[in-house]
Amino acid sequence: MPSLPFRRSSLLAVGLVSLASSAQAAAPSVDDALKLAPVQSGIEFDTPSADNAKNCKINPEKIGKMTAWVVRDPNGVILRQFSDSNGDNVVDTWSYYKNGLEVYRDADLNFNGKADQYRWFHTGGSRWGVDKNEDGKIDVWKFISPEEASEEVIAAIRTNDPARFQRLLLTSDEIGKLGLSKELTDKLTARVTEASKAFTKLVAEGKIDAKAEFADFGGLRPGTVPAGTRGSSKDLTVYEDVWAMVLAGETPQQVQIGSMVNVDGAWKLIDGPALGGGNAALAGFFYDSAGVQPQPQGAPEQVAGNEPTEEMQKLLESIQKVDDQLASAAEDAKPALNKERADLLEELAGIAKEPAEREQWLQQMADMVSFAVQDGSYPEGLERLEALEKKLADDEASENLRTHVEFRRMQAAWGKSIAEPKADYAKIQEAWLKQLEEFVDKHKSGDHVAEALLQLAMASEFNSDNEAAEKWYRRLVADFGKSPNASKSEGAIRRLTSVGKTIPLKGAALQGGNVDLAQYGGKVVLVHYWSSSSPTANSDAEAIADLFKKYGGAKFDVIGVNLDYSKDEVTKFMGDHKNVLWKQLFEPGGFESRLANEMGIITLPMTILVDDKGQVVNTNLQVTELEDEIKKLLESRVANNNAPAK
Q1: What CATH code is assigned to 506-642?
Q2: DSSP letter at 294?
Q3: Integer distance in angstroms from the first to the last C-alpha of the chain?
Q4: How would you classify the pairing of strands 583-586 and 556-562?
Q5: What's the half-sphere exposure (Cβ side, CA atoms, 13 Å) at 68?
Q6: Distance (Å, whole) CA 535 – CA 392
Q7: What is the annotated signal peptide range for this record (predicted)?
Q8: Total-model pTM
Q9: What is the pLDDT of residues 470-491, one digit of tens each?
Q10: How is the chain split into domains, by residue range?
Q11: The CA-based dihedral angle spanning residues 355, 359, 365, 370, taken in that order and rounded to the nearest 10 degrees
Q12: 556-587 b/e with 16+ CB inside 10 Å = b?
């Protein structure tokens, strides 16, 4: 195999000639690999010192069905991964790691050598941005959390970037899909229109300059507004009264962010930012009885509770100074700084006037300490979490706070274990699952109990222990029926117990008309759950197209169930793949859509094979295994049809 050079385009592409016979190849150098950087700025990832880089290694590895160049440090911990997801021998995914975990990825999903999607993972966050014109700037947020959206607002103000703010706002198309009454739709449209003006006004005031830093996020918790409320036709998940704390100059300032609504995984704004509480406070919309425009909320003294006290401001200012030091601190200085930050957060909890506020600060402290333990910058933090956990038990704190801290302590211990140079990952994972079992056996309520149950169920599925998976899914449904994951768990139970049964699957087809699996009687049917962003989307489409061409007709058919988050993505994919001729179901929401929850889809691609009687025969086939199973079913169908009547 010839040498494997890295190629660069204007947006940094990496070429991969071939990995078929890597033994004869001259691998790219570690230096070349480590010179590559994320397209988006502000990413914290591991880069070894010049001395350590000399002992790093780069080798081709098989990652699932993909081939990748993987850079590992002297202890074998992964630093970079450059993958070929579609088998064309060209790198199209560039992944960056911190403490062995992927924190950021550039992806070229149209395979033209330029990144068009950017994703954050693990401690890097949850954002997923789409760059339609491939100019290095995000055009649309596919995923973004409320905290990250608030941070983006502050960044847009700081850099005077109206376009950056605009892409956080609800679009007119999104407003139309919320299912609100005409009256509320009109009011919401007017409110979003005013948001850009508010942004421009705040920037012009110059009170938040280029040196301002996002310091904190605030808001009680998101809530669901059920269908039927004030004439609405859909459930909505919303956040009211969100604010961000900003250090502008030497004084912390509170910026009102306003109301947000979750649209297919991305939290979108309806308001422009405003400084402080007082007359600048923003009225709620989704919880408000009329959905009114933002109005003055009374005299400053009436809303003073929204503003941080002088004592709180001093503590927040101190936290920001610690954060500034952490940004450039040497590794050996970080433990003391992280301890100081945790002390300050605990002080904030101590002066909180309301129990909910105290709980919020302690949760933030537990989150911060847990993450610092996991990334190695506060090893002693594990003992601190253990002490806090004991103190809260003695103080009889709320169940939710106690389980939150306990769960973060467990995660910290897990992260510290896997960071050990000779960590036994299999044993650590086994111990982690055992801890999760003990956790859910001990606690019957708390946000993280439902999360732990879902992790146990999913891990059991990945280990092919469907019996255990079903047990955990059933527990989640029984104990946390109102959890966002309850409907998905119900669907997973339906899927895991579906062999020998019929399953519900119907909806509007992208190509027009309706699809109902019950109407496919007499045919063997492949139900294919997929997404155009899946690394195997192209190869799977080609393989299934071959099967459809060879067996399709009166005997065999395919139903595609697309779980992209927007119709544009699947429409483009279908336009690029003219041989995908079978019906495709699509509903907005991706993994949270009705189609995904109905069968509890947790990973893609997923195939379900149905016989000519409409009964499920297999729910866990790889695309490469399909033809043999289809042949068996078709042969059985012919044999049954030719059998003499009794």
Answers
A1: 3.40.30.10
A2: P
A3: 64
A4: parallel
A5: 21
A6: 45
A7: 1-25
A8: 0.54
A9: 999 999 999 988 877 888 999 9
A10: 22-140, 146-307, 506-642
A11: 160
A12: bbbbbbbbbbbeebbbebbeeeeebebbbbbe
